[in-house]
Amino acid sequence: MIRATVWNEFAFSCKSPEALAVYPKGHHEVIKDFLNAAGDIKAKAVTLDMPEQGLPDKLLKETDVLLWWGHCLHDDVSDALADKIVRRVYEGMGLILLHSAHLSKPFKRVLGASGRLDWGEGGERERLWVTNPSHPIAKDLPAYIDLPLEEMYGEPFGIPEPDNTVFTCWYQGGRVFRGGITYNRGAGKVFYFQPGHETFPTYKNPLIQKTLVNAVRWAYSNGATQKIDCECVKPLEKLN
Ligand code: ZN
Questions:
Q1: N or C: lower Cβ tally within 10 Å for the chain?
Q2: Are the beta carbons of 165 and 175 closer than 8 angstroms?
Q3: Is 120 exposed, middle or buried (0-12, 13-18, 19+ CB in 10 A)?
Q4: Any bridge partners for residue 154, and if so which?
Q5: Count of CB atoms within 10 A of residue 54's CB?
Q6: What is the mean pLDDT of the chain?
Q7: Residues having C-beta closer than 5 Å to ion ligand 1
């Protein structure tokens, strides 16, 4: 079983009447449930207000893939926790950064980037084009996914050039965005996925759910942990 942890800041924006009408228990619970329904994933959901900001060392160590959603409280996440997450990615933990996590400490630190973008209020139709159909995250997906309402994120996106651009997003208002992108960092795999505003039912869409199940499976590194400390080692062969 792949051990996945879904982290949500679950702040006031997620507890507005509009958000609670769509996700009464928070979208992290919906994500947890559809991951658990996949059969090969054991997911748990945690929030910022829990002890040790939801991610005590033991849980972080026992997490194979971490999904991270933040929006309003990026600065409340401790630098120490952000550093521990980056270290776990280097060791081989998968990291899936969702929607407004583009300004989170884990995103900016693991990618060494600003995460800047243009954004639009109000919501508009979004079409996510699969621009790398042979990628494991696109397995069994159609050519594109239509979402009736999402928040617009537009280029230029402040990121390093991705290893793979699995999705390119188009919005009704005419903008485009590299909205599904992958990286390798150390032994870990990283996926950023744009849709997922807290007042839209995006995480209830079966194709979005399939994408995230695929992403968890792709980001899983078979449980292997790579040491990241530099060791002084003995030679394998006798030296002259
Ligand atoms: Zn949003």
A1: C
A2: no
A3: middle
A4: 118
A5: 22
A6: 97
A7: 100, 151, 197
**Rounded distance from Cα 145 to ligand 1 centre (Å):** 18
Q: Which fold has domain 2-112+181-219?
A: Rossmann fold (3.40.50)
Residue 223: the pLDDT is: 77
Residue 80 three-state SS: helix
The Å distance, Cα 150 to ligand 1 centre, comes to 8
> H or E segment at 29?
helix 27-36
Q: What are 9's two structure tokens?
A: 């800041």
Q: Give 170's strand partners.
A: 127, 176
pLDDT tens digits, one per residue of 169-193? 999 999 999 999 999 999 999 999 9
- Ligand 1 centroid to Cα of residue 197, in Å, is 4
CA distances from 227 to 83, 90, 109 (A): 16, 9, 19
Residue type, 79: D
Q: 206-219 and 27-36 are packed helices; what angle lies between their axes, rounded to 10 degrees?
A: 70
198 backbone dihedrals φ, ψ, rounded to 5°: -70, -15
pLDDT tens readout for residues 125-154:
999 999 999 999 999 999 999 999 999 999
